[in-house]
Amino acid sequence: MKKIALVILLLFSLQITAQNKGDWFTDYEVATAKATSQNQNMLVFATGDMSSETEALLNEELFNSETFKRVALKVVLLQLSFNDTDAYTKRIATHYTGVKVAPAVSLVDANGNRLGVSLTAITKEHIQTFLSQLEAKLQ
């Protein structure tokens, strides 16, 4: 009986984790349509080749922060990859973030206009500045 309860608990926790990762759209047309229909901005995360240190810093200081969790409730989350084989996706990522390299994070309106400065230098200080900018823009 304990094994069945453990399996059910494990499946439930996996479902919650999958839902959290599922909050990010990967199709810019769908994300833009949602942002337009809900009158929301988009937070664009352009990924690609990242070191494990950079990824860990982004997760620790940005994505797992309480500020990000509050911000994420007010925007449409869009993840684009510079490693995508679709050239248009790469162009959209460059347009939204203003750079051609990953990682980069940018706040844009539903029309694709950048709102503020993109996060392109991944340091604790830059991440904190970016989070402050996001909160100010979304008040």
Question: Can you walk me through this structure?
Answer:
- Helix 3 (52-63) packs parallel to helix 6.
- With 139 residues, the protein is an alpha/beta fold.
- The protein is 53% helix and 15% strand.
- It has one domain (24-137): Glutaredoxin, CATH 3.40.30.
- The model is unreliable at 3-21 (pLDDT under 50).
- It has a 4-stranded mixed β-sheet with strand order 1-3-2-4, covered by helices on one side.
The CATH topology is Glutaredoxin
* Biggest β-sheet description: 4 strands, mixed
Beta-strand content estimate: 15-25%
Strand order of the largest sheet: 1-3-2-4
Number of helices: 6
**Mean pLDDT over the full residue set:** 86
Unreliable stretches, pLDDT < 50, 5 or more residues? 3-21
- Number of DSSP strands? 4
Overall 3D geometry? globular
For this entry, what is the oligomeric state of its chains? single chain
Q: End-to-end distance, in Å?
A: 50 Å
Structural class: alpha/beta
Binned, the helix content reads: 40-55%
Provide the domain count.
1
Find the CATH superfamily.
Glutaredoxin
CATH architecture: 3-Layer(aba) Sandwich
Order of helical and strand elements: HEHEHHEHEH
What's the topology here?
Layout: H1 2-21, E1 24-25, H2 28-37, E2 41-47, H3 52-63, H4 66-72, E3 75-81, H5 87-97, E4 104-108, H6 124-137
Parallel strand pairs: 1-3, 2-3
Antiparallel strand pairs: 2-4
Quickly list its features.
139 residues, alpha/beta, Glutaredoxin, four-stranded mixed β-sheet, 4 strands, globular, disordered N terminus
